[in-house]
What does this fold into?
Amino acid sequence: MKCKTVFVSVTAGLFIAGYVQAQPARIAVKDANMLYDQQLYDEALQKYMDIQVEHPGEPILDFNIGNTLYKQQRFDEALEHYEKAVLNADQSLRARTNYNIGNTFYQKALQTETTGKLDESINLMREAVEYFKSALNQQPDDPDTKYNIEFVQQEIKRLLDKIKEQQEQQQNQQGQQGEGEQQEQQTQQGQQGQNEQEQQEGKEAQQGQEGQQDKESDDTDKQSDSAFKADPDKDKQQKGGKEDKKEAQELSEQEAGRLLDKLPDADKRKTTRQPQKGYLGEVEKNW
It folds into this structure.
């Protein structure tokens, strides 16, 4: 930006104080101005302040002190002296002071921008524009003031675009982060689903094996049961045989009875006293 800092000699202002004080003050201001031109700002500032001790409240001294502090980038201190100068300055000096206040706010805005505080920097630039407009009202034909107004307005636009760009970048980063988290979540869900499927398949396979084992066990049990299960026909044959044997036995007993009846009494007694098979060891009864 074209930063035009106005510098005014204090000779005219100090001359009004009187001829007696004018000669020493004029020499002191001339020396201070030479130091300023040589960019020896510390020495120049000290001389201006020494003169101000003897001439307090002189707006031109505050203006020159403000300019020296501006060159040292001590912007807050420069603003204090510029504001003092405006209080007692005439229209011409007031216009130049407002112009320099505008430049000071702009420089503060640039410093603030380097710290990343873009909103605060924009506010400082808007302050600068207001002071440039005040200077333009007091000197409507000043081309530097008009230029600075347009320039700082473009700077404000630049910072607004910068803020917008940062917001878009932040949104894109958040979107990418969200997509990454979503993709990771989907991957985890897919892995979990695969694990669950594998577990289910393993469970089904185990159940299948258990079912096969149960089936084989059932088949074995059935075979065992069939091995020990009696054949109905065979049982029937065995039962029939027993019945036939019983009938035969009964028949023989009946025949034996008939035969026994035919035997003599002596032979009959002898036959009945014989123990029957199946009662071996039983004591014979006394007939």
